[in-house]
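FYI - complex with zinc ion, inputs then prediction.
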Amino acid sequence: MKCPYCEAENKSRVIDTTRDSQGGIRRRRECKKCGRRFSTYERVLRSTPLLIKSNGDREAFDREKLIRGIQISCAKRPIQAAEIKALVDRIETHLQQLGRDEVSSRVVGDMVIEGLKTLDPIAYIRYAIVYLGLDSLTSVRDIIDGLLGEQGGTGTGKGAAAPPAGPQSPGNVAEGAGAHP
Ligand SMILES: [Zn+2]
């Protein structure tokens, strides 16, 4: 640590340490050479991996964009903004905990879809239609049957609310999910 006044390197002693609400650590220091005081602030920099889209492009995780995409699926549904934000927080934290530079954007789409499944079935179906690229009534019915099966309802009992097929355009989930509600 360099003194900002006399530029002496590593000549400061810590006279006080405090921790702030964000978990950062603030150290009040005194330069042993010039005697002046300054503070340093240390905090964890969490980095979120880049998302690899299906076309191979890399894209930064964009929480606002993700929130907008999810909001469109949740339009007119009894879902609180806070619930959407909590879901996106979970996704962001999960990405950071992976500790990788890059991950498939499917990680995000899969977590959104799992999250919506527990939040609201209609929002889940809307998102699934876009995210999984469902393009027939049969495939949509499979999703619905899967949900009903899980709820112990009148579904076909497949118990497969899980996606019937892999996402067709996982890379586009961030922007694509909101494109057509
Ligand atoms: Zn100094």
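The first helix runs from residue 63 to 73. The radius of gyration is 24 Å.
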